[in-house]
Amino acid sequence: MPNSLDNVVLLACNDAGNVVWMNTNEKPTQIGDALWHRVPRSKTSSFKQIFQRLIENGNPQTGEGLTASGDLVRGWGWRLNSKIYRVLCLFLEIPKTITLLSRQERSILQMISTGKSVKDVSEEIGLAISTVHTYLRRIRAKASLDSHESAIAFAGRYLSPIGSHRFNYNDLFEPNSESSSDFSRNIASFRGTRLAICDWQGKLVWESDPASRQIGTCIWDLVDPVQAFRFQQEIALALTTRHSTCGEYIDCKGAHFRYFAWPMNCPDHALLVLTVRIPNGIASLTARERAALSLLGKGKKSKEIAGLLDLSISSVHAILKTSRQKLELANQESLISFAARYCDPLQFPLQCVESDYRSG
Question: Among 236, 312, 328, 349, whose CB has the most other CB atoms within 10 angstroms?
Answer without folding.
Answer: 349
